[in-house]
């Protein structure tokens, strides 16, 4: 990876600065040393006095001793000589993920994790008096957190009692179903609706910031933060593997169904969380491949939430599914083109769309491609991911559309650009084309 340059962030008024990422998947199959180097390079350029770096699971690709040894070696190399604001070395916080259970097995994984990292898989720790609770799956299933129920209950109470005006970070590899982007499909068992319902515990503390990995979804998607359950849930993408988003899209080159977007192997993203002296939290999203922030930082007003709760007033959570953006636009001279390559394959060409404004919710997340029969027959609809996560977005697209049966008759294409929240552009339309080869 090309080394990127970052400007230091102001430190005044910041109680604790914590770098967070997940899904390192340290192994020989991935450029683990290179990507972890990019993570720490960005962390220390932005925060020369980084207080802590937290890794939210899937530290390794299968949990063997060689991969853990490489992780320790890389981490020691990149943190050597660095210290936080207290003068102590940067704290390293490791969480366990499902991949870390693969070789030792889920029943032994927590013990192996503890032996290899020197840390407890479940623990309450502190970063400049900011509480951080780590959760680990197991021992019955690689995605099951119900065994953490009593520990979480005690830890939340202890954290809120000791520092009642500060956020409580809860780090767990799997997301909570139906919260941050991609957790509809990638999530853990938090005992919802049972006597060991961890979500119900979290809902008692609006100052909770739950950070998960597992999904590998792009941080440029504004749905990566969600507060719909009464606390904050964030998915942190992947630092060491590949992007993977939601189902329902296709690969633009092959026409086959795909959850991995184009150039997904370039993935290397992370968070930098600032806890201010006031208790407010500012979360910066880092695209380490592109060398830029993914968008404007998220701001979580913990004091306002706690004050409203104390006063019995409604809590204001701005990051919910009800957010909207402005529909994207194509340039005035943009045109779509339809061409049939084979009896069952069409090629659709169109230029990129653009956000209508600078709001993060208005960015182009996907394109909808509809092939319409002139005689009113059944249309063909496909979706592709945009490439907003790349350093340079492509100016022109060529998307292959495959069907199970040959195209017959006369067709035209309509292309719409979509935001993450469903706002659609006006369609680009092609001239009618006969499906004759």
Walk me through this protein's architecture:
Residues 17-217 form the Calcineurin-like phosphoesterase domain. The protein folds into 2 domains: 14-311, Purple Acid Phosphatase, chain A, domain 2, CATH 3.60.21.10; 337-434, Immunoglobulins (Immunoglobulin-like, Sandwich). The protein is globular, with a radius of gyration of 23 Å. Helices cover 16% and strands 25% of the residues. The protein has 437 residues and is α+β, with helices and mostly antiparallel strands. Strand 1 (14-21), helix 1 (32-46) and strand 2 (52-56) form a beta-alpha-beta unit. The two termini are 44 Å apart.
Topology:
Layout: E1 14-21, H1 32-46, E2 52-56, H2 65-79, E3 91-95, H3 109-117, E4 123-127, E5 130-134, H4 149-162, E6 168-171, H5 198-202, E7 208-212, E8 225-226, E9 232-235, E10 269-276, E11 281-287, E12 292-293, E13 298-300, H6 302-311, E14 337-342, E15 345-351, E16 366-373, E17 380-385, E18 396-402, E19 410-418, E20 428-429, E21 433-434
Parallel strand pairs: 1-2, 2-3, 5-6, 6-7, 7-9
Antiparallel strand pairs: 1-10, 4-5, 8-9, 10-11, 11-12, 11-13, 14-15, 15-18, 16-17, 16-19, 19-20, 19-21
Helix pairs in contact: 1-2
InterPro entries: Calcineurin-like_PHP, Metallo-depent_PP-like
GO molecular function: hydrolase activity
Organism: Caproicibacterium argilliputei
């Amino acid at each position: 990876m090309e080394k990127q340059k970052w400007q230091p962030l102001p430190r005044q008024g910041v109680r604790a600065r914590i770098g967070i990422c997940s899904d390192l998947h340290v192994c020989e199959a991935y450029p683990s040393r290179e990507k972890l180097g990019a993570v720490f390079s960005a962390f220390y350029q932005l925060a020369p006095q980084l207080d802590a770096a937290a890794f939210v699971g899937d530290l390794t690709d299968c949990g063997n001793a060689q991969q853990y040894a490489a992780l320790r070696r890389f981490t020691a190399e990149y943190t050597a000589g660095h210290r936080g604001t207290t003068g102590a070395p940067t704290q390293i916080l490791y969480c366990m993920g499902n991949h870390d259970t693969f070789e030792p097995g889920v029943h032994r994984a927590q013990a192996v994790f503890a032996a290899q990292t020197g840390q407890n898989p479940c623990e309450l720790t502190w970063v400049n008096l900011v509480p951080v609770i780590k959760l680990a799956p197991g021992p019955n299933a690689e995605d099951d957190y119900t065994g953490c129920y009593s520990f979480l209950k005690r830890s939340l109470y202890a954290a809120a009692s000791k520092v009642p005006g500060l956020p409580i970070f809860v780090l767990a590899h799997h997301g909570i179903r139906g919260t941050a982007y991609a957790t509809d499909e990638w999530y853990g068992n938090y005992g919802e609706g049972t006597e060991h319902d961890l979500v119900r515990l979290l809902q008692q503390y609006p100052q909770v910031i739950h950070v998960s990995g597992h999904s590998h979804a792009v941080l440029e998607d504004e749905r990566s933060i969600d507060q719909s359950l009464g606390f904050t849930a964030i998915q942190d993408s992947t630092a060491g593997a590949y992007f993977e988003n939601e189902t329902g899209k296709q690969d633009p080159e092959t026409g086959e169904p795909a959850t991995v977007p184009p150039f997904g192997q370039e993935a290397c993203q992370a968070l930098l969380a600032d806890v201010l002296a006031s208790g407010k939290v500012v979360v910066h999203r880092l695209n380490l491949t592109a060398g830029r922030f993914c968008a404007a930082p998220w701001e979580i007003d913990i004091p306002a939430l706690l004050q409203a709760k104390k006063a019995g007033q409604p809590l204001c959570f701005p990051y919910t599914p009800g957010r909207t953006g402005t529909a994207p636009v194509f340039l005035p001279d943009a045109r779509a083109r339809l061409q049939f390559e084979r009896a069952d394959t069409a090629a659709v060409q169109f230029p990129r769309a653009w956000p209508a404004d600078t709001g993060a919710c208005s960015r182009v997340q996907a394109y909808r491609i509809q092939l319409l029969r002139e005689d009113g027959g059944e249309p063909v609809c496909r979706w592709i991911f945009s490439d907003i996560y790349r350093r340079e977005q492509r100016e022109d697209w060529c998307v292959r559309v495959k069907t199970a049966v040959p195209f017959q008759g006369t067709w035209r294409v309509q292309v719409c650009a979509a935001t993450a929240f469903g706002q659609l552009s006006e369609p680009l339309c092609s001239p009618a084309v006969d499906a004759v080869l």
